[in-house]
């Protein structure tokens, strides 16, 4: 049996729509072995598909087929700690886990670069799947099915506070809210900030992050879909966050905070959310995962 650990991810980081993402130390675990037939179980209370439509199964089977290897079926057990459909990379984790598990079961015929490409094509955008595989902060472009990317390890001194609403937001819905075209000046607005985000996070110039997270491509259209999203951004900035942004396609809102302020930020953010009437929203404190997907055991 193989055990795989896949990190949560936070894509876009404001301005880097479909191109920037980072991995966080919140993990899903997948156990996998080849059997005759399908057996899929949840190791916790999370309800998951247990048939051919299970995303881990689909990704794994797909890779067996691509590699032309005989596929008899799989036993899969999933421990899901990444909240589903909240913009924290739960689908990516399933796809990446399925691909890595299948590759390991086949004796590793594919390189990490090839897995990065397959994962991005299956996921649709490279900004969740690539950091899930590589860890760290990833800048990625997909061109004709190939991912061109750079991974940068970033400091463990930053804390990422996820404000996780009690409602799901599908990527399809969040993408449907976007306009077909944007003004040239808005393109410039974003590309300059996305470049600034990447180098500022990497180099430690965190005072740039607030400006770097500004965005005109997706957040203005999505924030209104998240009740009190603007107030939560304001709360995060009032409490001293370096930056606040919608994580991936939402519904989670993310705040980047210095570790020295993390304790007071957490206490006051909880009070602030409660004051807004969002007692049911979770606040999760995380930090960067610089390792990416790991095969923990082959037993
Ligand atoms: N970049 C994607 C989006 C992330 O914002 O729609 C979700 O996969």
Beginning-to-end CA distance, first to last residue: 5 Å
Order of helices and strands: EEEHEHHHEEEHHHHHEEHEE
- Counted by DSSP, the helix tally is 10
The tally of strands reads 11
Helix content: 25-40%
Any idea what the radius of gyration is? 19 Å
Which ligands occur here? Answer: L-homoserine
Low-confidence region ranges: none
Shape: globular
Overview of the molecule:
The protein has 299 residues and is α+β, with helices and mostly antiparallel strands. It is built from 10 helices and 11 strands. It has helices at residues 55-66, 90-105, 112-123, 126-134, 171-176, 184-203, 209-212, 219-222, 229-238, 262-275; strands spanning 2-11, 20-34, 37-42, 73-79, 137-143, 146-152, 158-164, 243-246, 253-258, 282-286, 294-298. Strands 1, 2, 3, 4, 5, 6 and 11 form a 7-stranded mixed β-sheet that branches. The protein has a 4-stranded antiparallel β-sheet with strand order 8-9-7-10. Strand 8 (243-246) and strand 9 (253-258) form a beta hairpin. The longest helix is centred in the middle third of the chain and has 20 residues, at 184-203. The N and C termini lie close together (5 Å). Residues 11-12, 17-18, 125, 127-128, 171, 174-175, 218, 248-249 line the site of L-homoserine.
């Amino acid at each position: 049996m193989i055990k795989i650990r896949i990190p949560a991810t936070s894509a876009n980081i404001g301005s880097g729509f479909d191109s920037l993402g980072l991995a966080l130390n919140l993990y899903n675990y997948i156990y996998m072995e080849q059997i005759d037939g399908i057996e899929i179980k949840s190791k916790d209370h999370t309800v998951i598909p247990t048939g051919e439509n299970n995303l881990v199964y689909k990704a794994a089977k797909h890779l067996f087929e691509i590699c032309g290897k005989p596929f008899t079926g799989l036993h899969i057990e999933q421990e899901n700690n990444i909240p589903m459909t909240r913009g924290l990379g739960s689908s990516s984790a399933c796809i990446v886990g399925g691909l890595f598990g299948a590759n390991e079961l086949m004796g590793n015929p594919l390189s990490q670069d090839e897995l990065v490409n397959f994962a991005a094509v299956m996921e649709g955008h490279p900004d969740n799947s690539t950091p899930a595989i590589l860890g760290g902060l990833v800048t990625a472009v997909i061109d004709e099915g190939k991912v061109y990317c750079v991974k940068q390890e970033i400091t463990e001194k930053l804390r990422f506070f996820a404000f996780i609403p009690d409602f799901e937001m599908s990527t399809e819905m969040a993408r449907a809210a976007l306009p077909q075209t944007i003004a040239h000046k808005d393109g410039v607005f974003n590309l300059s900030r996305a470049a600034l985000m990447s180098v500022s996070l990497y180099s430690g110039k965190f005072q740039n992050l607030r400006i770097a997270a500004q965005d005109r491509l997706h957040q203005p259209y999505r924030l209104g879909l998240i009740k009190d999203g603007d107030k939560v951004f304001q709360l995060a900035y009032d409490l001293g966050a370096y930056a606040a942004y919608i994580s991936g396609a939402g519904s989670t809102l993310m705040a980047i905070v210095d570790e020295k302020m993390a304790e007071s930020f957490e206490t006051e953010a909880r009070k602030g959310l409660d004051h807004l009437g969002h007692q049911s929203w979770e606040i999760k404190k995380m930090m960067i995962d610089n390792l990416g997907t790991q095969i923990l055991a082959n037993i």
